[in-house]
Here is the input.
Amino acid sequence: MSTTASSRTSAEIDSQPSTWRQAAASVARHSAALPRRGERVAVIGCGTSWFMAQSYATLRESGGHGETDAFAASEFPHPRTYDRILAISRSGTTTEVLDLLRLVKGTTPTSAITADPATPVMRAADSVAVLDFADEESVVQTRFATTTLALLRAHLEAEGALPSGIRTVERAAKDAESAVPAPLDARVCGAEQFTFLGTGWTYGLALEAGLKMREAAGAWTEAYPAMEYRHGPISITAPGRVAWVFGSVPEGLADDVGRVGGTLVAGSRPVDGDLDPLADLVRAQRLAVARAEAQGHDPDRPRNLTRSVVLGNGHE
Here is the structure.
């Protein structure tokens, strides 16, 4: 299967190292919208934005910057109190996000990260970081989501709160530059099923990889914490099926995948897996586009999806 896609999504995927660097350079400019050290923070979003919220929440809390929870906007536990609510919304029009921001306005400080400065989230949140340089024409999110995580990761780096072992955004960008042109294994491109796995902050990336494959290519995908794989999900692994691990591979897992005939993907290098997990997500995005185009699907405009979910009367 060819992995050189001509879609707009593919071009946006390839641009990510540049947008990550731009986000990292803009941390000081966006400081008003970013959580303060010690704040108890809830990060909310829908779909892809929720998965990025999960990754950031784990990074922030494990780095000692403050207690952090992540919620789908529709599932926010309203009796619970926080020092700040941070919303992630590419479009700035998502109903569940706007409803929550408006509900807590005046009682809880709110921030938002968006791609569009001309949308209702600019008024709904107390402070907003606009990453318009990472906006996308494609319905499927790729670079806005990862650029948001790059901004938040760079902020932790600037605050001295990047967890041990987590690389700089610059290193992630360099890894992504090496990952973008690298060919994808034929066994992976032709697989019938994918199980994405992650540990800690990379679990959110695993969830996002699974979503990208479903959205763009209609693929059969699942995602789990890596240590949960042997508690049931391994039963689905077989020849022609992939277990893709973001970050470190738990001891013995590679042998278990091989024993049942599955294909293990760990980073881009079969031996050391030494690829930043955010860069590895770029590879999964490319795979989603390649699979979609091979099946005659339009990865820019997946079926049943729109850029933003606006419910009822909506928020225009």
In short: Strands lie at 41-45, 68-72, 84-88, 110-114, 127-130, 193-198, 221-225, 241-246, 263-266. The chain has two domains: 8-174, 178-294.
